[in-house]
Specification:
Largest sheet: none
CATH class of the largest domain: Mainly Alpha
Radius of gyration: 15 Å
Strand content: under 5%
Number of domains: 2
CATH architecture of the largest domain: Up-down Bundle
Distance between the termini: 33 Å
Order of helices and strands: HHHHHHH
Shape: globular
CATH topology of the largest domain: AhpD-like
Helix content: over 70%
């Protein structure tokens, strides 16, 4: 991939990352960049956001649902909470997440789903207490 293609993928990825996670989240993450993690942040911006989240096959809502289910199945607590907060911007609903976590229970195990449900409930409660946070 040429440097120009990488730059375009990074720009596209950053735009989608901001749409999904919100400017406040992305601004906090980029403000904390160091020499140690800057290559990693570029990688996820280009790869996750510029290559996958930017694809036309799924809507942002659908990607959000799949992402939350996968993160729950993998036990990635902080990432589950972050992507639940992102549903403010993706259009995924509580009902969508509930259904996704039922799939997690069947295909990845009840303990993984049970743990994720606790995180999701806590995150939704925080979101309801501060409805304008993260936008």
């Amino acid at each position: 991939m040429s440097e120009n293609e990488q730059n375009e993928r990074y720009k596209a990825g950053m735009a989608v990352r901001r749409q999904v996670l919100g400017d406040a989240h992305v601004d906090r993450a980029t403000a904390q960049l160091t020499e140690f993690d800057s290559d990693f942040q570029t990688f996820i911006t280009e790869g996750a956001w510029g290559s996958v989240w930017s694809r036309p096959g799924f809507t942002k809502r659908e990607r959000s649902i799949v992402t939350i289910a996968l993160l729950a199945a993998l036990g990635q607590d902080d990432e589950v909470a972050m992507h639940v907060r992102a549903t403010r911007n993706t259009g995924a609903t509580k009902e969508d997440i509930k259904e996704a976590l039922l799939h997690v229970a069947v295909y990845a195990g009840v303990p993984a789903a049970n743990h994720a449900i606790k995180i999701v409930k806590k995150t939704f409660a925080e979101m309801e207490a501060a409805p304008d946070q993260g936008r």
